[in-house]
Each structure stands twice: as C-alpha cells, then as structure tokens.
Amino acid sequence: MQNSSSYDPTARRLVPRRDFLAAAGCTLGALSATSLTRAVDKGVAVPSYLESVADQYDADPRAAALQWFRSAKFGMFIHYGLYSLLGRHEWVQRNEKIHVAEYAKLADRFTAEGFDADMITDLALETGMKYINITTRHHDSFCLFETKYTDFKSTNSPAKRDLVGELAQQCANKGLGMFFYYSHGRDWRHPHAPNNWGWGSAARPQYEEEEPAYVQGAEHDVAIYTEFMNNQITELLTQYGPVAGIWLDGIGVLLSKKEKAAVFKCQELYDMIHAAQPQVLVSYKQGFLGTEDFKAPERHFKGESDVPLELCDTMQPHGWGYTKADDGKHKTTDQVMAMLDKADAMNANLLLNTGPMPDGSIHPEDVATFKEVGKRLKEK
Q1: Cα(127)–Cα(74) distance, rounded to whole angstroms?
Q2: Gene3D superfamilies in the record, alphabetically (predicted)?
C-alpha cells in the first residue's frame, strides 16, 4: 500500500538552514522545509523533532540533540528486508548458507504493499515513542532507499518504492526523530566486504563451496567496501533532510580483528557525518572508538557509561526480522513496561524492535501491545 504522502525521489527542495550540509555540498531530497524545520528568531531552521531544544540548537546543534535524546526515552526499531519474506529472521542467509545469487531472487518478490509510513509513525506516537530507527541496509546488503551505488534496492524491486524516504517524510511531518540503521562491519553480498579467512568466521556465511560473488585472495580489498559504505551513508545524509542519528552495526567483525580495523577509518566517517549534519548522533553498538555520541548495546549493559545509553530489544523471542515460528509468542504489555522500567533505572532509552510481516505491515500482535503500552504510559 503506497499512500499519498509517499516519498518522491525526483523532487528537490533546499532547507534554509545556514551551512546545513555545506560540508557535503549537496541539496536535500524531497522533504518540504516547513515539515522538516521551524524557523527561529535567529534565522536558523530547527529540525522538527528538536523543537523542544530550539534555544540550544543555534549555539550547538549536537549538544541540543544529545539533550533531546536523553529525554526521548523510547523509540521504535524496525527490521525489514528480503529476509522478512522467508519469515526465519534476519540472519537466514548466513544461517542457512543461501548463496548470493539464490538469495537475490527474493528481490523479485519484494512488494512491500503493506508498508505504510503514515500508520507506522502514528503508531509510534500513540505508543509514546519519540523516534524511529529503520534498517536502511542490513547484513544482506539489500537497501530500502534510493542509491546509485547498487541495483540491489527496494526502488529496483516490484515495490519500486523508497521506504526510507517515505518514513523520513512522515517522521518530519510529525516531529519524530529519524535514525538510520546501517550495517557497517558485516556484508554478505559485497565482493570486498570482510571475509571469513581474514576477519573471522562470523563475517560471511560459511558456504561449503566458494561463493562466486566474492573476490578471493590478494585482490580482495576492504578499502573498496569502505568507500562503498561511505558513499551510501553520504546519500542517507543528503537525500532525506535532517537526520537524528546514524546507527552502525556489525561491530563484532571489527572487534575480532581490531589490529586490522583501521582500514574502516571510523573516526573519519564520524567526522564526515558530523560535518554534513552537525546534529546527527552516531553510535556503533556498545562503542568501538569511544568517540561515539551514544552507546546502543543489545538488551544488557554493565558498568557506567560516560555518554547517553540506549538499550535495544525486540518483541519476538528470537531474532529481529519477522520470525513466523514466534507468532503468538511476542512480548506482552507487562513485559514491555518492565523493559521500560529496566531502561529507566539505568538512565537509558529503550529502542524496541518490531519485525514487520512479509508485506511490510506491522505485526498485529505488536500493534495491539504498542497501543496498550501507550495507554499505560499516559496513565502514569
């Protein structure tokens, strides 16, 4: 289902914020200035989700964003992609050793007819959430956004839709922060992504025979993959208006061979992100360099954090992408309230994941629970 507010990748409009994206030298994608920003007295346009910290924004956009993030407390995580069609969660390609060409055939079935950004953002607001994070590109490398660096994308599937753009538009319209999950350290498609013999067995699927899509031996060059990623992250920062955060994943690959990880040039990436959009918050799970803006571990965190903390967890017992075997077993309202209490006790946000159905619609169990959680929070 594609509603009337869907993203138009052919449209272009500049947002009137001085030096916004000046470092990237780019214009913004199809988001109107009025829906994205609010003009303040000093003439600086404030992203709609940061209106509560507008006074601080002009002096220090990132400090204002950090203040907003600390008070946001609750966000929605969305894992959606080709893996959703199989219903065996997001690691199905690796777990079942599905070869690249065979897995790519799923793109021919990707219609996303149930993905409704208007409904998703309304649900987030009704639940009491302040931001949304979507998998723009997971480990399988399928992109839910328009990109010129690969044809493996939703706009090149039967859906012919930029799902990231549609969701960014609705978040901007409704004052929700828009975070972009991006698989950084792990990629199961790109020819030059970290491989098993150089970066550990968790980097790629452990195929019984050589995968023809991968470059082998001395010609394998992770720097080529790194350039590909940086180019795509630049697209995410220049096509969809003000972004609340870049949420990197795949840290386990880098940590397994930390002596080689300099090729990823993470600090240069962080600096590029902040130069392009100074309010953007960067995380790399529990932290890789220590210069990330916040930490985002899965479910648990021990010790103290000198930066804001976000715990991510999921509504399903297993996995983050849709898992059919878990139907009827999703977390209850009481369980979600306990998760919120746990995060609050740690002075952390809760990023709560839902894995949409194969058609992109939010799982009905999660819709019902989210709405009930919203009612409970209003009563507190």
Answers
A1: 9
A2: Glycosidases (3.20.20.80)
